[in-house]
Amino acid sequence: MQTKTVAFGGEGGKAFSDPERDGTYQLSKINIQAEDYIHVMQIVLKRGNIEITNPRRGQTGGYAYTYVPSGPITKVKLNYDPNYVVNYIEFHESNGQVKSYGKNKTDSKYKITTININGEIVGIYGRDGAMIDKLGFLVNEPFVFEQVKTEAEYRATR
C-alpha cells in the first residue's frame, strides 16, 4: 500500500505528484540539483532489470548530483522556509550512511523537520516552480507476511 508523508516547504509554484507505484518498484537513485536551495529532484526506480524515471520536478540551477542509496532510507531531514522553498535535504540510511544536498540554513525563519520513512520511497509530491517549493514523499509500505501454521497447530485450533 502506498502512503504519503507530510509535505513541508512554501506555497509557491504549482502542485505536483509523481505517479502511484505498486510494491514491485524499488528506489534506484535520486537525481538532485542543489546549491543554496533544492532546485531539482527526480526519482528513478527499478522494476526487475528496467529503470523507470519519474518526471523531473523543479526547473534548473544548482550543481547536479546523483544519490544512489547504499541501504534503505529510514528518514529524511528537511530545512525549509515555510514562505519560500526547500533549502536542504539529508537522507539517513539504515546502515548509518548520511548524504546531504543544498544549504542547511540556521536563521530563525527557517524550519527543520525529520520525516520517518517506513518503507520504500517511490516518488515525491509537493509544489515546484523554478525550485522545489514544498516536498513530501510517496512511500510503499513494507510487505507483512502472515506466519503459516503447521498442520498440527491448525488441527489444535479446531
Write a short abstract of this structure.
This protein has 158 residues and is mostly beta strands. It has one helix spanning 151-156, and strands at 2-4, 8-9, 14-17, 26-34, 38-47, 50-53, 57-58, 63-67, 73-80, 86-93, 98-102, 111-116, 120-128, 132-140. It has a single domain, classed as Vitelline Membrane Outer Layer Protein I, subunit A.
What is the subunit organization of this protein?
single chain
User: What proportion strand?
Assistant: over 45%
Q: Quick one: how many beta strands?
A: 14
Number of domains: 1
**Name of the CATH first level:** Mainly Beta
Shape: elongated
Proportion in helices: under 10%
Coarse structural class: mainly beta
Largest sheet: 5 strands, antiparallel
Q: Any guess at the CATH architecture?
A: Aligned Prism
Gyration radius over CA: 18 Å
Give the secondary structure arrangement, pairings included:
Layout: E1 2-4, E2 8-9, E3 14-17, E4 26-34, E5 38-47, E6 50-53, E7 57-58, E8 63-67, E9 73-80, E10 86-93, E11 98-102, E12 111-116, E13 120-128, E14 132-140, H1 151-156
Antiparallel strand pairs: 1-14, 2-14, 3-13, 4-5, 4-8, 5-6, 5-7, 9-10, 9-12, 10-11, 13-14
Explain this structure.
It contains one helix and 14 strands. The protein is mainly beta. It has a single domain (2-144), classed as Aligned Prism (Vitelline Membrane Outer Layer Protein I, subunit A), CATH 2.100.10. The two termini are 33 Å apart.
